[in-house]
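A note from the maintainers: we've had questions about how concatenated examples are separated. There is no special marker in the raw files; a new sequence line simply starts the next protein. For clarity in this README we add a label.
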Amino acid sequence: MPGLSIDTTSGWIEGVRRMPSPNHDARPPGVLPELIVIHGISLPPGQFGGPWIDRLFTNSLPPDAHPYFAQVAGRQVSAHVLVRRDGSLTQYVPFHLRAWHAGASSFGGRSACNDFSVGIELEGADEVAYEDAQYASAASLIGALCAAYPTLSARQIVGHSDIAPGRKTDPGIAFDWPRLRALVEARA
């Protein structure tokens, strides 16, 4: 997904699918994104495709559509962007706003990572290899983010498990960190 461009006034990626989530609010005054958090998500767990992630992030997940959904329906969560298995992107929250992706978290001695981070969800599961297209799209997105927001850096990319150890495991053991970092560095 080469050539991504972010409109820093609106906070939206130009030319990608938008599915605005109500699950966001303003970042604290003067706080800019300084950290990129990589997540993994699948709904139902281990199943890919379908409308369920969109429905979760837009508060319209039917709790009776799958037994697992009763546990997560009604949670007010979001991410800035989802990278599907085919590499396509959906943006839910503009980057200058705070998406609700990290929960109880800390990084570098600072708590509440939602305040100063961008949340990128990759459709996947901890033990399932991510797709080539996902790594390429994520690297392109990270490059565009670093170009648009000078406070972001390719060195400030972590997993949800890094900022919420013991509580979260994503993006999981199947995520190839060296591969993502090499792709990001090649775009820098």
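[label: protein 2]
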Amino acid sequence: MDGMTRIRFAEIDLRVPAEPGLYEIHSLDGQALKVGIGKNLRKRLTQHYRSRQSRLVLKAGGDWSNPRDVESKQSILAKHLFFAEVDGYDLKSEAGRRAFLEERCYILFRTTATREEARELEKRKEASGGFRFVGLTDSA
């Protein structure tokens, strides 16, 4: 998409403005992982990076092996990565998830005038079907 800036997770604080916008998270091997928006992109992307699997919550009577039974109020990406398998990374651990984001992922972002403008862009991206993790999915 035109106007997108590419950065690594380590660059969030230096390069991402505290403005509304759209972001995409991709793996270095080309897989589009997540598209999202934020009224403050820096804060939202930092939240994804710092989110913890320990803050995932099991629904009453749920099973940790079933993604539908697990919720995350902080970062849906943390939930999805908890259930994903990537060679060389233990994505159930904080260290493994962070290492994966730092070493194997990048971010594309674009600021927008409003959160609503970002939401419209996000809807179009999600509808394209190109992202692995969209909203509340059944599996990773």
